[in-house]
């Protein structure tokens, strides 16, 4: 016949075993289960937080860099425009100068050509005068058949030609 | 209705009785240890397995509950609360085997846990406010209340332990009554069969007690484990208030 304890009783040894089990289980679970898992959870959270922080830092520095690059880009394009403007202005000035020089040269050349033409004309006229006067002397001598000294004749004809030319 | 069976008596110190309760709590302890050891192999921060994810969720819930009830400064109590909860629920559920008697159906188990809570509470109070201030606390708000406060302090572990014990032991009594009632019903229904083997077979005991067990073992076991853990958290948390908030009475 097995022996039973009363339904409700205080048994110190059962309580002592319960305490012992509780303490042993507590120490075991703390070392094996709770603390390692809690550490892992915390470690993972820390890693995630670090990652977020790093991402935040990266983003901030990236946006700072973008602002910087945009500024540089703006400065560069402004500089480029200025260079182009300068170059254009210089080119226009140069163009004007070249055209002006060309005009001057052309005018000078034209004037010289006019002068030469005038000179040639005068020369040609003089030559013509000489020839005409010679021809006239010949004609006159042939006509009047009078022997005059050539110097006298020439003087007469020159006066005649002179009268013609006016 | 008997208490736990005395399995062995160690003949020292006037006879140490090893009861069914003690056996169940040893088996519960070994099961929890084995499960904890098995489940926590190969823990990893970056590549947790399915086991670890579930386990982390549960441990995280425990720590969240402790933080919510006792405050972040009392988080180091979480392993103790978890141990208490697991001891209680496994000690209760082992009774479902019908081979072992639930460890929590013995007042000594629950009383030991309740006294441990009281000890932690008193230790916390004395450590935080000093022995004299703690004793003076009994005479507040007026000296007339001193007997009441002392009774309430003593009543805490008694109410805690009897609540837990009563629920589980009551379930055990109900289940036992149901089993004998079903056996009687079986005998009554089968009495016309003239074969002894068949007409003594308690056929109604098959399956039907399982429904009662869902309430008395699963539900009640879970609720009582939660209740004793919550009460422990509340009492111990109350004895260890946050340090940075000054006491209003001072």
Can you tell me about this structure?
The complex is a heterodimer of chains A (166) and B (250). With 166 residues, chain A is an all-alpha fold. Chain A has one domain. Helices cover 90% and strands 1% of the residues of chain A. In chain A, helix 1 crosses helix 2. Chain A starts with a strand and ends with a helix. In chain B, strands 1-2 form a two-stranded antiparallel sheet. Chain B has one domain (27-239). In chain B, 33% of the residues are buried. The model of chain B has no long low-confidence stretch (mean pLDDT 86). Chain B is mainly alpha-helical. Helix content of chain B is 67%, strand content 4%. In chain B, a hairpin with a 5-residue loop joins strand 1 and strand 2 (16-19). The interface between A and B is large, with 36 and 51 residues. Strand 1 (3-4) of chain A pairs antiparallel with strand 1 of chain B.
Question: How would you describe this structure in keywords?
Answer:
heterodimer, A: 166 residues, mainly alpha, 2 helices, 90% helix, rod-shaped, B: 250 residues, two-stranded antiparallel ribbon, 2 strands, 4% strand
What is the element layout, followed by pairings?
The complex is a heterodimer of chains A (166) and B (250).
Chain A: E1 3-4, H1 12-144, H2 150-165
Chain B: E1 5-10, E2 16-19, H1 20-39, H2 50-70, H3 78-93, H4 107-129, H5 131-137, H6 146-190, H7 196-199, H8 208-239
Antiparallel strand pairs in B: 1-2
User: What is the domain total for the residues of chain B?
Assistant: 1
User: What is the oligomeric state here?
Assistant: heterodimer
The share of residues in helices of chain A is: over 70%
How many strands of chain B? 2
Order of helices and strands of chain B: EEHHHHHHHH
Largest interface: A-B, 36 and 51 residues
State which percent range the strand residues of chain B make up.
under 5%
**Content-based structural category of chain B:** mainly alpha
Helix/strand-derived category of chain A reads mainly alpha
Largest sheet: number of strands, sense, barrel closure of chain A: none
Determine the N-to-C terminus distance of chain A. Answer: 180 Å
- Our Rg estimate of chain B from Cα atoms comes to 23 Å
Question: What is the first-to-last residue Cα distance of chain B?
Answer: 53 Å
Determine the number of helices of chain A (DSSP H or I, runs of at least 4 residues).
2
| Model regions low in confidence, pLDDT < 50 over at least 5 residues of chain B | none
State the helical fraction of chain B.
Answer: 55-70%
């Amino acid at each position: 016949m097995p022996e039973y304890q009363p339904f409700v009783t205080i048994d110190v040894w059962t309580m002592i075993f319960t305490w012992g089990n509780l303490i042993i289980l507590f120490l075991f679970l703390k070392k094996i289960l709770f603390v390692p898992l809690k550490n892992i959870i915390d470690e993972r959270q820390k890693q995630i937080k670090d990652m977020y922080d790093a991402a935040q830092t990266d983003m901030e520095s990236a946006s700072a860099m973008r602002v910087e690059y945009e500024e540089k880009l703006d400065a560069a394009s402004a500089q480029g425009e200025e260079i182009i403007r300068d170059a254009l202005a210089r080119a226009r000035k140069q163009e004007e100068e070249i055209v002006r020089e060309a005009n001057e040269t052309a005018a000078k050349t034209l004037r010289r050509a006019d002068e030469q033409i005038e000179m040639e004309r005068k020369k040609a006229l003089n030559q013509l005068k000489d020839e005409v006067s010679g021809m006239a002397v010949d004609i006159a001598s042939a006509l009047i058949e009078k022997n005059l000294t050539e110097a006298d004749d020439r003087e007469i004809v020159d006066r005649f030609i002179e009268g013609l030319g006016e | 209705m008997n208490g736990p069976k005395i399995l062995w008596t160690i003949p020292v110190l006037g006879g140490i009785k090893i009861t069914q309760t003690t056996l169940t709590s040893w088996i519960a302890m070994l099961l929890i240890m084995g499960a904890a050891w098995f489940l926590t192999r190969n823990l990893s921060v970056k590549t947790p397995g399915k086991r670890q994810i579930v386990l982390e969720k549960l441990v995280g819930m425990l720590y969240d509950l402790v933080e919510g009830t006792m405050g972040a400064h009392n988080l180091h109590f979480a392993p103790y609360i978890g141990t208490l909860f697991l001891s209680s629920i496994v000690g209760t559920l082992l009774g479902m085997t019908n081979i072992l008697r639930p460890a929590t159906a013995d007042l000594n188990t629950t009383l030991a846990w309740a006294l441990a809570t009281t000890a932690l509470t008193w230790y916390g109070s004395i450590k935080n406010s000093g022995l004299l201030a703690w004793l003076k606390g009994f005479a507040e708000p007026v000296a007339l209340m001193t007997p009441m406060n002392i009774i309430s302090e003593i009543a805490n572990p008694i109410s805690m332990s009897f609540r837990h014990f009563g629920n589980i032991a009551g379930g055990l009594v109900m289940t036992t009554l149901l089993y004998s009632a079903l056996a009687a019903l079986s005998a009554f229904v089968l009495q016309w069969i003239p074969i002894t083997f068949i007409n003594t077979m308690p056929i109604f005991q098959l399956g039907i007690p399982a429904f009662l067990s869902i309430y008395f073992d699963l539900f009640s076991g879970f609720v009582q484990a939660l209740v004793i853990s919550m009460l422990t958290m509340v009492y111990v948390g109350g004895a260890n208030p946050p340090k940075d908030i000054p006491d209003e009475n001072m």
